[in-house]
Amino acid sequence: MNSSQDVVTSYRDAPTRTVSAGGVDFAYRELGPKTGVPVVFLTHLAAVLDNWDPRVVDGIAARHRVIAFDNRGVGASTGTTPKSIQAMAADAVTFIRALGLPKVDLLGFSMGGMIAQVIVQTEPELVRKLIVAGTGPAGGEGIKDVTRISNLDTVRALLTLQDPKQFLFFTRTSNGKRAGQEFLARLKERKDNRDKPIAPRAYVAQLKAIHRWGLEKPADLSGIRQPVLVANGDHDRMVPTGNTRDLASRLPDSELVIYPDAGHGGIFQFHAEFVGKALEFLAR
């Protein structure tokens, strides 16, 4: 294991640490340089630490301190998983403050992008810049259907002996299928000290939170003054791509990137392009 003085450059080798705050032991991993504003990764439905694409993490950690963590009640973090995005955002703020970070950049994927939107509105002084991918605003079109789509694709995956993410994150074209297989292989690169999978109860709580987010009244996003990079694939089934365009149009300072022949996991399919864009955006 690396000592705290060593700079970890690979997510595959980043030790899992814990920090206690608000009655929760949060499991997290960090890597990259120790200076500058850190990028805190906010993860997707059912995800634990091992679900981040190491190419995306390592690519951003080449220039920035990157911190990924398990939400309350998920993976190796203790506590009970909340049933609202707002409570998850409060937990994320508790975690960030427990690490003594006065200012962060946020990278939120899918459910993490919803959490990021709440954080930047409730704690604007904490956030410098925002990157959100595969996500949508509160009350966005089709977001309330995530449970149905997730259940359907889980059954499809069981029947075909595949990972549900092959269907949920990627298109069914030859490019999409290949990208999905490559992504799933990358998630297995870490061999030691892997995280615990999400418990069924925590997964159900997250589904309820996303469903509620989809039923909310649209929020006024005009007060978000931070620069926001908004990304997705052009064929997102989980959070329909129209939400991504809607989100970008309602943010005062946003940049939109849509990847072709890509689904919910477009940033993983186009990881090299996404990392390049993210680094350029963060450096501005």
From TrEMBL:
Q: Which GO terms describe its molecular function?
A: hydrolase activity
Q: Which UniProt keywords apply?
A: Hydrolase
Q: Which residues form the AB hydrolase-1 domain?
A: 38-268
**A Pfam family per the record:** Abhydrolase_1
InterPro entries reported in the protein's UniProt record: AB_hydrolase (IPR050471), AB_hydrolase_1 (IPR000073), AB_hydrolase_fold (IPR029058)
Coiled-coil intervals: none
Does the keyword Hydrolase belong to this entry? Answer: yes
Q: State whether keyword Cytoplasm applies.
A: no
Q: What is this protein called?
A: Alpha/beta hydrolase
Q: What species was this sequence derived from?
A: Amycolatopsis mediterranei (strain S699) (Nocardia mediterranei)
Q: What is the lineage of its organism?
A: Bacteria, Bacillati, Actinomycetota, Actinomycetes, Pseudonocardiales
